[in-house]
């Protein structure tokens, strides 16, 4: 069964039949194009192997290791019949090991390799929306809710957060682009419902970053809050609901090497609380 490259069909179909014809070998003669064809040919064969239980573990490992050199791996995974279903099967298979906590290091490594491939799908612009429409992040929430502190569980939580983070970073950047436009800012601040919806999501992400800091994501969030403070009514409202972690120096270490974002945060606090109060209460280090 031939694989379709870059397909945008959101369906991930049924499991393919056991017999597959491997992709033809690249033409001789070398060259840059030939090297790229060989890489994609290797990726295609490994994706096919995911649907074969006996070959799956090695395919997950190899694709996870080489995902950075397969630039269109996300669309390839999504459009290959049965592949996403096989990845979800890997995730579901360890649910019984979550409670009571009996997850082994080998099982954790294997499912984390599957999660790394799902992150390729979540982060690619051609497949991100399909990933969300299919509600695939719901399969990851049981991993995020685990409390066990052993290494297999920590690795599982961290890898799951990477998948969610790939979506959150893009979503936050989109919100920032909307707010930086005057029309977008007026639209968000026109009603209390829109304003609270945006600030609630931003505040929730700030809380998550307290435990799992990301300076890049924090930068986008602070810029969003700063832009919201340009609206007078929104600025007054934020006196009551600006996240505490942005006010008490929680992220000083995270922003130590980012003077621009530190200045944004300082200006946000000045806009919301006034220069005198910020100078008296401290605020982030300059």
UniProtKB/TrEMBL annotation:
GO terms for cellular component: CCR4-NOT complex. Residues 19-29 have a biased composition (Pro residues). It comes from the Eukaryota. Residues 8-18 have a biased composition (Polar residues). One of its GO terms (biological process) is mRNA catabolic process. This is Cell differentiation protein RCD1 like. InterPro entries: ARM-like, CNOT9. Transmembrane segments: none annotated. Residues 1-39 are annotated as: Disordered.
């Amino acid at each position: 069964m031939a694989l379709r490259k870059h397909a945008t069909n959101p369906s991930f179909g049924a499991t393919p039949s056991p017999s597959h014809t491997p992709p033809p070998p690249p033409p001789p003669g070398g060259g840059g194009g030939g090297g790229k064809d060989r890489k994609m040919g290797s990726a295609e064969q490994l994706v096919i192997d995911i649907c074969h239980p006996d070959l799956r573990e090695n395919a997950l490992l190899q694709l996870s290791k080489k995902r950075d050199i397969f630039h269109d791996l996300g669309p390839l995974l999504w459009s290959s019949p049965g592949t996403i279903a096989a990845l979800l099967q890997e995730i579901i298979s360890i649910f019984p090991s979550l409670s009571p906590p009996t997850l082994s290091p080998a099982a954790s490594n294997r499912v984390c390799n599957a999660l790394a491939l799902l992150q390729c799908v979540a982060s690619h612009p051609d497949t991100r929306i399909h990933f969300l429409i299919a509600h695939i992040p719901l399969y990851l929430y049981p991993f995020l809710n685990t409390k066990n502190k052993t290494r297999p569980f920590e690795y599982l939580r961290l890898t799951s957060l990477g998948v969610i983070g790939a979506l959150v970073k893009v979503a936050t950047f989109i919100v920032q682009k909307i707010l930086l436009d005057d029309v977008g800012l007026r639209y968000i601040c026109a009603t209390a419902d829109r304003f609270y919806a945006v600030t609630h999501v931003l505040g929730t992400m700030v809380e998550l970053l307290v435990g799992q800091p990301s300076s890049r994501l924090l930068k986008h969030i602070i810029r969003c809050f700063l832009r919201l403070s340009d609206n007078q009514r929104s600025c007054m409202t934020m006196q009551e609901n600006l996240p505490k972690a942005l006010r008490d120096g929680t992220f000083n270490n995270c922003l130590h090497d980012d003077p621009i974002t530190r200045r944004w945060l300082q200006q946000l606090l000045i806009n919301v609380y006034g220069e005198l109060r910020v100078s008296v209460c401290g605020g982030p280090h300059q």
